[in-house]
Design brief:
This protein is α+β, with helices and mostly antiparallel strands. Helices cover about 40% and strands about 15% of the residues. The protein has one domain: Glutaredoxin, CATH 3.40.30. It has helices at about 10-20, 40-50, 60-65, 70, 80-85, 110-120; strands at about 1-5, 25-30, 95-100, 105. This is Arsenate reductase family protein.
């Protein structure tokens, strides 16, 4: 089973849940705003994902823009970026899918089909 960190009002998250339900994927939901990922969780997921750390940031979010992170992230270490992500769930790209073998940020039907259905990387 996968865990999906999400924000209920997010339309992308709503689309993702429809896709998961339509494809019979079992998941556990976790509210990203109420239960913000910890530094340790983010570090583990980032390392497991193979994705650039920037992919974990909600670059279209208001908080990201208010904090001027587009330029600031370039000067920050990975550790500083992970600590910043751990301060507020609204900074984290969502939905964030965490499985035993895979970590995905955002929703892409093509990527999710490849990673969650075809490769059978659930767990």
């Amino acid at each position: 089973m996968i865990t999906v960190l999400c924000y209920k009002k997010c339309t992308t998250c709503q689309k993702a849940f429809k896709w998961l339900d339509a494809n019979g994927v079992e998941y556990k939901e976790r509210a990203i705003k109420e239960e913000n990922p910890t530094y340790e969780e983010l570090k583990t997921w980032y390392e497991k994902s193979g994705l650039p750390l920037k992919k974990f940031f909600n670059t279209s979010g208001m908080l990201y823009k208010e904090l001027g992170l587009k330029d600031k992230l370039l000067e920050m270490s990975e550790e500083e970026q992970l600590k910043l992500l751990a301060t507020d769930g609204m900074l984290v790209k969502r939905p964030l899918v965490v499985g035993e073998k895979t970590v995905l940020t955002g929703f892409s039907e093509k990527t999710w089909t490849e990673q969650l259905l075809e490769k059978n990387s659930l767990g």
